[in-house]
Amino acid sequence: MSNINPTGPSRRDAMAVAGGIALGTLAIGPYLHAAGSDQINVALVGCGGRGTGAAENALKTVKQGPIVLTTMADVFEDRVTSKLNLLGKEYAKQVEVPKERQFVGFDGYKKAMDALKPGDVVILTTPPAFRWLMFQYAISKKLNVFMEKPTTVDGPGTAKMLALAEEATKQNLKVGVGLMCRHCPARGEMFKRIKDGQIGDVLLLRAYRMKGPEATSRSKAKAFYNEENELKFQIKRFHSFLWASGGCYSDFLIHNIDECCWMKNAWPIKAQANGGRMYRFDPADGKEFVDQNFDSYSVEYTFADGTKLQLEGRIMPDCKQEFASYVHGSKGSGVISSNSHWPSGARFYKGQSFNKDDIMWQYGKEPAENNPYQVEWDKFIAAIRNDQPHNEAKRGAEASLVTSMGRMAAHTGQEITYDQILKTGQAFVAELEKLSFDGPAPVMSDANGRYPIPQPGIKKDREY
Ligand SMILES: NC(=O)c1ccc[n+]([C@@H]2O[C@H](COP(=O)([O-])OP(=O)(O)OC[C@H]3O[C@@H](n4cnc5c(N)ncnc54)[C@H](O)[C@@H]3O)[C@@H](O)[C@H]2O)c1
């Protein structure tokens, strides 16, 4: 970090500098727009589903001022071209990504950020394993950053991310983290009311994400997918591998954990947990699932004052489905979210029974403009344009660590504390910078194509 200027520019300063250089030399660079210095250029690193969505959210802030997608990077070329086609059709006037600003490969993120100027925005939507490495480079280029959750998958990665978060604040960079529910107006109103004592002291929180298998959380052996290259396979199916994503636990459960901790206004200090693997074959073809995930997780988080957060996660088909979070207080209870992320359906009840007749407050209709995926971007870009403080990196890292703490408790069968995972937790990847499709992957399968799995009580200080 020593090469970073600690008194870095705000976007306004950066714009002034960039404009000055352009005028002084009469050489308007390829990434400076003669028309106006208030244009924000955006690079998308990780051109998958969420990256495309985040780029759209970015482009939709155009009512605040000009914003253009200028650069894209991915480890797979077809991801860049297909998502460029999609975005280019929908936002023709705001997408300018010529061939020379499309980058493919593990160093693509550097080239993409080199093509921006200080004060521009980079979107980091790769699997989370790469987040701290890319954030570090973004800070060195004085870029504002939007990064998806989880921002870390293990303790050592979190320690790095926390240090980088501080550095970003020193540099006056703006950082948004894709825990978008924090920007949901209904939940925000609920948080204020809990602080004001409307349901008394918070005594218990409960959260559920019990769904069928989602995304790439279950994987059969590599051959099934016609993918020869081990690392390509693992990156394409990143929810199946702990090093890449923290597994289905971290990727899917972090939102519910985070919104509960928000309502408690604290992070838990420890966790104990159960979890297991049940049906490790696909009933459709009888083929075995060889990924590293458990099928279900049941975690008790404890806060410093003894309050509990009980979390249930399940990725098994044809079982009861629930995707919601609840809060129980000494004078009432509440629904934080009722079905997926949004609308939240935030409301309070007298008593603990959630009887319809006992509703004592509800947020009510949540209009389209309250969609937290867009609100988080509107606020992020407003902070950049108006040079207001906006750095969610620390909170994002803490949410990610608390999430990993519950996962590690389930995978080891041990009680795990916040400090323990932060200071002595397993590092899933030794040399992230050196990953290459020509080299080995961070985890390798056995002769049967199976990957190492957690063994609670046998492997006690490592997850595999
Ligand atoms: N906030 C939300 O509700 C939400 C929703 C979906 C996904 N996400 C998060 O977004 C992230 C991406 O998820 P997704 O569903 O878009 O996955 P995805 O597989 O669709 O996209 C990830 C992309 O990153 C690329 N990639 C992988 N490693 C790379 C590297 N080193 N450099 C450049 N590109 C690389 C992949 O090729 C892929 O195109 C995850 O962290 C996920 O948890 C958040």
Give structural notes.
The chain has 464 residues and is of the alpha/beta class. The protein has two domains: 11-181 and 375-391, NAD(P)-binding Rossmann-like Domain (Rossmann fold, 3-Layer(aba) Sandwich), CATH 3.40.50; 184-370 and 400-434, Dihydrodipicolinate Reductase, domain 2, CATH 3.30.360. Helix content is 33%, strand content 17%. The chain contains 13 helices and 15 strands. The chain has helices at residues 11-25, 49-59, 77-90, 108-114, 131-140, 155-170, 185-195, 230-236, 242-245, 247-264, 372-386, 393-412, 418-424; strands at residues 40-45, 67-74, 102-104, 121-124, 144-147, 175-177, 202-210, 270-276, 296-302, 308-314, 322-329, 332-337, 347-349, 359-362, 416-417. A nine-stranded mixed β-sheet has the order 14-13-12-11-7-10-9-8-15. The chain has a six-stranded parallel β-sheet with strand order 3-2-1-4-5-6, sandwiched between helices. Helix 2 (49-59) links the parallel strand 1 and strand 2 (67-74). Helix 5 runs parallel beside helix 6 (155-170), helix 6 runs antiparallel to helix 12 and helix 6 (155-170) packs across helix 13. The longest helix has 20 residues, at 393-412. It is globular, with a radius of gyration of 22 Å. Residues 1-9 and 12-36 have low confidence and may be disordered. Nicotinamide-adenine-dinucleotide is lined by residues 45-51, 73-76, 79, 106, 108-109, 125-128, 130, 148-149, 178, 180, 235, 251. Nicotinamide-adenine-dinucleotide binds at residues 45-51, 73-76, 79, 106, 108-109, 125-128, 130, 148-149, 178, 180, 235, 251.
